[in-house]
Specification:
The complex is a heterodimer.
Chain A: H1 2-17, H2 21-27, H3 44-51, H4 55-68, H5 87-101, H6 106-117, H7 132-160, H8 174-186
Helix pairs in contact in A: 1-2, 4-5
Chain B: H1 2-30, H2 33-62, H3 69-74, H4 81-86, H5 92-113, H6 121-141, H7 173-183, H8 185-197, H9 203-233, H10 244-269, H11 273-295, H12 302-307, H13 310-331, H14 333-336, H15 348-380, H16 388-411, H17 419-442, H18 448-479, H19 483-493, H20 495-520, E1 522-529, E2 533-536, E3 539-550, E4 555-565, E5 568-573, E6 576-579, E7 587-589, E8 591-594, E9 598-607, E10 614-623, H21 625-643, H22 656-670
Antiparallel strand pairs in B: 1-10, 2-3, 3-4, 4-5, 4-6, 6-7, 8-9, 9-10
The chains are: A mainly alpha, B alpha+beta.
């Protein structure tokens, strides 16, 4: 274990003399707030969790993870709370779980975070106001595009009608027949 | 010294690009041999000048010449040599230099390959590539100059962004992306050349087909490589986050894919001329937009972006290209008009048109979602996020539709078909697809999209196998050879078609892997004491000990975990956290144990720093993830096959009718009555 302790000491030194003043500042107040996150000491509760036998708890965890996956980690670049291991995200995930455990609906939990951080915290924009565009425009584009394609296809197939053999026999282009004849002669 | 060499080289490249632009375009119009030659040699010259700048920068990086601005920004004495060499693309100026060098290399290659060609398009294409070069070398000479002089010379630098020096894949995926991005300049240059010269037949498409496929393949490998990198580095157990940077590489991929398909309609039927020009111009605009998006800082905030100079210049160049292209298309509109004519709605042609509709709708949606936060902020000052939940919601249906088309399109003949033949073509694939869907259901999948995906994937796989079977059978009959020889022959003689099918197979593998890993992933996060074991599915994870290691550029704390698979010992895994002096947050290095079935993915989340007696670990079982990378390799293989020169009989390889006819040989042999013997 002494190897490990010496290593952590070296880590603290590295952080202190590193060129990033922000890091150095952070390491000042106490050893606890260095870039390292302190793991919570294993407790009875942790043991319970590692047993994970209670289906109700499991359902709560799953719901909390689902809600948290729709929340943005405020200090990361484009990660959700459930993906990030930043300290703030871990705390937010705990808040989500506690609020759900206290009987709040997922919508109420989301509303709570919106009231604290603004709409920006939601990874999927709420479907109202200007946000409706981000949902409506793709659908509109697809529908309009589909009708244009349909109209063009009708026009093009109509233009070709006169040229189609009336008996409906497989329409081999002359060039294909030519090639096949050559190929057969070759063999 | 290196500052001077670099700056002079870039100034020389700028002049060379100017010469190539003028001589290329004037030479293209006047057809004066001296000008055409001048355009070619100017293009070579630009490549030599940019190579000198590239080498100067690499030498500066590797010798830690901190008097060079870029080296002072991203270099450090402690960074390992490999990461020092690749830190060329870890920051803005270096990556523009890399972009410019690749552009110059593509230009020189185009000029060299076509040096004996008397096609009217070549000087124009060289001129257009010179024009694009003017912009990038201009950036390097002015606002993004990496060779600025730093005084006093610092003794050391901060090193590259820690995220970019944490995994060897960083040496692979950005060059692949850039080769793909910049490679798409080639078909763009020929398209503009066709517009300028008025030679608007299929020549520009045939001349650039292999360039486009190669660029597309690089881009695909770059995208998959980027996903792999993010999986191995970012530590959240995923590979695609719909990050704007990822979307920036995906957008031109979507339009380039649409282009690769729609040009076949023009080659066969002379239709869709304006559409194909617009698609490749749009692709190039998205390439510029992607470079802009990832390099201008606009993503962090609109305000940060307007403070820098690069962003507005980039935006102005994108607008210029867009306006010039539109003007050219309008100017040539009389020659672009080609009367459309199709024999039937149920034909391969119309499937390509549907394919294009979905790809373009996909592009529009991803573009809208990526830029929407900027739009909202510009409109009413609010900040919103558009993240994975949105993109997954819109892209899964579109992706599934495209998957379905991938089964229909290639199996339908050109021109027309009969209902009986349609039934014969699709009865077996439909049965296989249904079986795949039922198998998914039987194995416990209850969500709709995965089930639909499995069904369509089975359907598409069966049509691909069927195409190969028909091709081999036809070849055996025509050439009177055994099945393996016939397979080899169709792969080499008709490499474009069968290479395409192999690419399709790779895409099916990727889509199924996406569906499986998205649906069946499960994870647990637990704090373990030393010697304590936790269970996750078939796996047991036991915490053995913590260790720490000081390396020159960073400090590493890791955990050793013993792994058990169904109770049997299965080695150890060592996820770690890396502390870099220039980063406040530790950068994790997850540990991944891959089997063909699934990955076990461990991330060290926290540890007890006083005693090292316990550690918090997140364990994820990620099914089918290795198949993403395998699928990427299959795509690359198929693309390599498709760009190989056509082998076979003495017929001219570029004759479109021959290729087209050979494509139909399979269907013809199926239809004995149609064969005139």
């Amino acid at each position: 274990m002494s190897r490990f302790r010496a290593g952590v000491l070296a880590l603290l030194l590295t952080c202190a003399i590193g060129p990033s003043s922000a890091t150095a500042q952070e390491s000042e107040p106490s050893a606890e707030t260095t870039a390292t996150q302190e793991a919570e000491a294993p407790t009875e509760e942790a043991d319970d969790r590692s047993a994970l036998t209670d289906p109700e708890e499991e359902a709560l965890d799953a719901l909390a993870a689902e809600v948290a996956s729709g929340l943005r980690c405020p200090v990361c670049r484009n990660q959700s709370v459930v993906e990030s291991n930043a300290e703030l995200s871990r705390e937010m995930q705990a808040v989500v779980r506690d609020r759900l455990a206290a009987g709040e609906t997922p919508e109420e939990v989301e509303a709570y975070f919106v009231s604290r951080y603004g709409e920006w915290i939601l990874l999927q924009p709420q479907a109202r106001g200007i946000n409706l565009l981000v949902y409506g425009l793709p659908a509109l584009a697809l529908i309009v595009g589909f009708f244009i394609a349909r109209k063009l296809l009708h026009k093009w197939t109509g233009a070709a009608d006169g040229a189609v053999p009336a008996d409906g026999s497989p329409d081999l282009a002359a060039e294909d027949e030519q090639w096949l004849r050559e190929a057969l002669r070759e063999s | 010294m290196l500052n001077l060499i670099g700056s002079v080289s870039i100034a020389a490249a700028l002049l060379g690009a100017l010469a190539a632009t003028v001589t290329g375009i004037v030479g293209g119009y006047t057809r004066k041999p001296v000008l055409i030659r001048a355009a070619r040699y100017s293009t070579y010259f630009v490549f030599f000048a940019m190579s000198a700048a590239f080498i100067a920068m690499e030498v500066a990086l590797l010798t830690h010449d901190f008097s060079v601005k870029y080296v002072a920004r991203v270099g450090s004495l402690e960074t390992p040599t490999y990461y020092t060499a690749i830190s060329l693309w870890s920051s803005l100026e270096g990556s523009i230099l890399f972009w410019g060098w690749i552009l110059a290399a593509y230009g020189a290659l185009v000029a060299f390959v076509n040096r004996k060609s008397d096609s009217r398009l070549i000087p124009f294409a060289e001129g257009v590539m010179g024009f694009v070069g003017l912009f990038f070398y201009g950036l390097l000479a002015g606002p993004a100059n990496p060779f600025g002089e730093v005084f006093p010379v610092p003794a050391n630098g901060p090193g590259p962004n820690p995220l970019l020096q944490n995994h060897p894949l960083m040496g692979l995926h950005p060059p692949m992306l850039y080769l793909g991005y910049v490679g798409l300049t080639v078909p763009f240059a020929f398209a503009i050349g066709a517009l300028l010269s008025g030679k608007l037949d299929e020549e520009w498409i045939r001349a650039t087909r292999r360039w486009t496929v190669a660029a597309w393949a690089f881009l695909s490998v770059g995208i998959v490589g980027g996903a792999w990198w993010s999986y191995e580095v970012l530590g959240w157990g995923g590979y695609w986050a719909w990050d704007p940077v990822e979307n920036a590489s995906f957008l031109p991929w979507l339009t380039a894919t649409a282009f690769l398909h729609s040009v076949m309609v023009q080659e066969r039927r002379g239709m869709l001329k304006t559409w194909n020009l617009s698609l490749i111009i749009g692709t190039f605009l998205l390439v510029l937009f992607g470079t802009f998006l990832t390099r201008s800082g606009i993503l962090d905030s609109v305000h940060a972006f307007t403070e820098g100079m690069i962003g507005p210049i980039f935006l102005a160049f994108i607008a210029l290209i867009m306006v010039l292209s539109l003007v050219l298309i309008a100017w040539r509109s009389d020659r672009l008009h080609a009367p459309g004519s199709l024999d039937a709605v149920v034909s391969r042609e119309s499937m390509f048109i549907l394919n294009n509709l979905f790809f373009v709708a996909f592009t529009f949606t991803v573009l809208l979602g990526t830029t929407f936060p900027l739009i909202v902020e510009a409109v009413n000052g609010n900040r919103v996020s558009v993240g994975p939940p949105y993109f997954n919601m819109v892209s899964i249906p579109l992706g599934v539709l495209l998957l379905f088309l991938m089964g229909i399109g290639p199996a339908l003949p050109w021109r027309r078909t009969s209902p009986e033949k349609l039934k014969r073509t699709f009865i077996v694939p439909s049965a296989v697809g249904l079986a795949a869907g039922l198998l998914g259901f039987a194995l416990g999948t209850r969500s709709v999209w995965p089930l639909v995906t499995f069904t369509f994937a089975g359907f598409v796989s069966a049509t691909i196998v069927e195409e190969f079977r028909k091709g081999v059978k036809a070849r055996m009959r025509i050439a009177n050879v055994s099945a393996p020889v016939a397979l080899g022959q169709i792969l080499t003689r008709n490499n474009r078609r069968y290479g395409g099918y192999i690419v399709h197979a790779g895409i099916v593998v990727i889509i199924v892997a996406l569906a499986l890993s998205g649906t069946y992933r499960f994870e647990r996060e637990v704090t373990l004491r030393q010697g304590e074991l936790m269970q996750l599915g078939d796996y047991g994870v036991m915490f053995d000990e913590l260790w720490a290691e000081e390396q020159p550029q960073r400090f590493v704390v890791g955990g050793t975990f013993s792994i058990f698979h169904r109770g049997d010992p299965a080695g150890t895994m060592q996820p770690s956290m890396n502390y870099y002096p220039n980063s406040q947050q530790p950068i994790g290095t997850p540990a991944v144990r891959s089997t063909l079935k699934e990955d076990l993915y461990l991330t060290l989340m926290a540890f007890d720093e006083a005693q090292g007696s316990h550690a918090t670990v997140r364990a994820i079982v990620n099914p089918a993830v290795p198949w993403l990378w395998i699928g990427g390799m299959i795509v690359a293989l198929g693309a390599i096959l498709a760009v190989m020169p056509q082998r076979g009989s003495g017929r001219p390889a570029v004759s479109a009718t021959v290729i087209a006819s050979e494509e139909e040989s399979a269907e013809l042999v199926e239809e004995p009555t149609a064969v005139p013997v």
